Amino acid sequence: MSKATAAFRDAELTRAFDQVSEAEPMSVENWSYLMPPANMAMKRQLRRQIRPFVENALRKGPLGLAADFRQMKRKNDLSLMNEFVAQEPNGKNRYSDVGCLDHNRVVLSTGPCSYIHANYVSTPNNPKRFICTQGPLPTTCSEFWHMIVQDEVEVIIMLCDFVEQGTDKCYAYYPTKKGKPLTFPGNISVSCKGRDKFIFPFETKIKIKITSLEVSIEGQSPLSVSHYQWMDWPDKGVPEADLAPLYLLHQFRSIRTPIVVHCSAGIGRTGSMVLLENAMEVLEKGETLYEMDRYLTALRTQRSKSVQTEQQYLYVHQVILNLLRAAGWLPRSLEPYLEMFLQQYLRLIK
């Protein structure tokens, strides 16, 4: 982009946010999570709320945002991961280069071992909104289910398949057929009570399976858990950037116990979903949505190396822009720049 074109774009961005017109509402989708602005005062308020994020995204574009991502620290600080290091010889870590921070790790009070590769992660509305964890191994299924019962988890979101491109990504830790429970050491039994498809109120290619589970551990009351498996999110890649992840997350907004989210390592696809929820809760609270790098930096202090690839980081931006567009929060005059962002995004994720 030439300097003259960039200067024109910057002036157009400033004009779009400073000049609020009654005659420019965009069509609102059937479901957008956010309410469309009802009047001029609300429109001005919403523009102020989203301006830092939108201006940063459209000024830098996907190429600039990808460059920002490459500059962000993604190394393990093993001095903050003593238990992860200690457990490495015991087969409790799926990947030796994906650490687990000590300060907020889930410590199990029951079961064969107090360690599990899992961290509590906060969002604006809840200091323990998520537990981000690795996909269970054959040697960690007991710990996984002890964690579920200990934290009274109601929802598990699985963002991977058991095998992807011929590589094991997650052990089959839950049953998918009625009448065929799985048992694990420590008198743990997990039963399937039913399976169904997750239904979206809009067209999407995303496929999610819901499994109703009952977890029984000797000496404790049975726990009902809803398991959501996103069937087709590619490893280190991204799905179509529609509103599917936001609609899925929206279903769990009233849940107060931690939501367990995992993929294989529990940082890439998992981190992307958590970053999206952070943005949604910021918007929900009426707070200013800033540049996404500050939220990712904060997330990585809770779940090390969260968001693995440039594509995933850009995906988060594209989904949020699509949401703001669908809700009618963005000026119509930004349409050419939103389209330019989208086309560059599509080229970069290939």
From TrEMBL:
Molecular function in Gene Ontology: protein tyrosine phosphatase activity
> Where does the Tyrosine-protein phosphatase domain start and stop, copy by copy?
65-323
Check the record and name the InterPro entries matching this protein. Oocyte-zygote_transition_reg, Prot-tyrosine_phosphatase-like, PTP_cat, Tyr_Pase_AS, Tyr_Pase_cat, Tyr_Pase_dom
Q: Domain Tyrosine specific protein phosphatases, which positions?
A: 258-314
Question: What's the protein called, per UniProt?
Answer: Protein-tyrosine phosphatase
